[in-house]
Amino acid sequence: MAISPSINTNNITLGKGEVFFGADRNTYLPFGLLKNGQLNIKSTTQILKDSSSGINVPAFVAPIGIEATAKITVAELSLDNLQRFLLAQAPAAANQIGGTVSAQVVTAIVGALIQLQAVISGVSTAIKNISTATKPVVSGAVSVIDATADTVTVSNGTKTFTRASGSFITDGFEVGQEVTTTNFTNSGNNATFKISALTALIMTVTKVDGTAATLTAETNTTITNLTFTSGVYVEGVDYTVNYERGLIKILPTGNIIDGQIISIGFTYLAFTNQTLLSHTQAIFEGHFMYVGNSPYGTKLNLYGYGIMTPNGSLNFADGDAKPIEMAFDLTFIPNAAYPAGSLIFADTEVGGVD
Q: pLDDT exceeding 70 applies to what percent of the chain?
């Protein structure tokens, strides 16, 4: 007697349907609409033959393994699938609570988009879901000074506001600008002035009409938000806001010019942030489910556990005309949920077209 393996290869073309992929057999997440798919199944059977006659001994024919691979093309573009295709990893999601940014200082470029950002847990994070109740304020320059760390002194004799550290110039102020001050202890120091002279630490002011300003002497060491603001711009005239995505666009017909330093204050609501991470693994694995939706004959479900690898090109050129397609190679591997290396086929229903 002699034992020899018998190898059979079957190719199955998967028809229209949906593809799901999940971490376990209880929860399958939508992966995309199947554009086309090719399933290759190679089964190996152990056969006992009579060495003299070469005839198989039927009682000793036993399967010893199944190797299955598939190539699937899904036609559904989403952040999830784009990340899976580019980096072979599901997106990382983080729930962010709402907050307020008093001043995001940027250099304006006419026609450009500005992504609103906030520092969350020490990391600069792109912000979306901007509040429409408390709309963004875009100004020519702003200084929000915490006097507990940066003492501010007001002098009527020299008509100056003096800060202990930081820089009015870096914050975007210039001689000739109008500046509005708020939150000072003496109400007379909260007004709109014109800047007549400027250094990093000292702002000298007059009234808006150029006559001498009247200030009240004070030295502030306790107020955390002493604010100097210059040139507030108008939404719809100087810029537009995409509240959902947290984007501001500088309009070419407005009053903001190229290279101008502007400050943006805004409030954002809670949102879920999904990120596209780099330098991640080249493959990912999990539970695969194909739900057939052919208009003819048997509607087949296919289950298995496998490793998914992106394989192909991504073409955005015709994105408006047709779905963007992404191709993946799938190798089925043993898992405790299935017999070693096997697939499970399920006949869901018989359909047809009258």
A: 58
Domain boundaries along the sequence of the chain: 2-91+280-351, 96-274
Buried b (16+ CB within 10 A) or exposed e, 93-115: eeebeeeebebbebebeeeeebe
Among the listed ranges 12-21, 75-84, 94-103, 337-346, which one has the minimum average pLDDT value? 75-84
* Calpha distance 159→153 (Å, rounded): 11
Q: Positive or negative CA dihedral for 248, 251, 252, 258? A: negative
Q: CA-CA distance, 160 to 163, in Å (whole number)?
A: 10
SS3 186: coil
CA 320/CA 308 separation, integer angstroms: 27
**Which region, left, alpha or beta, applies to residue 350 given φ > 0 means left and ψ of -120 to 50 means alpha?**
beta
pLDDT in tens, 59-101: 444 444 456 676 666 665 555 555 555 554 445 567 888 999 9
Task: Report the C-alpha gap between 324 and 207 in whole angstroms.
Answer: 61
Give residue 353's region: left, alpha or beta (phi > 0; psi -120 to 50): beta
Contact present, 151 and 164 (Cβ < 8 Å): yes
